[in-house]
Fold this protein.
Amino acid sequence: MHITVNRELCAGSGNCVVNAPEVFDQDDTEGLVLLRVTQPPADLEQPVELAAQLCPVGAIDVVREAIAR
Ligand code: SF4
């Protein structure tokens, strides 16, 4: 899994931090999203998916890596 965030879209609601604090943070000045990690471990994938779904402005993109053959 690979995560990107769009800080220009972010509204600073903090939902992502509530759902996956190990992965998301907010800056101290504007409260906009910061990524703590871009490739979370498997046990954090579900909370990250939830955070992306619940972001009110769609600022979180999650790309699942293709399975190697
Ligand atoms: S949930 Fe979305 S809008 Fe809210 S802080 Fe996170 S990225 Fe920004």
Observations:
- The chain has one domain: 2-63.
- The pocket of iron/sulfur cluster is lined by residues 5, 10-16, 26, 33, 55-57, 59-60 (CB under 6 Å).
- The longest strand covers residues 2-5.
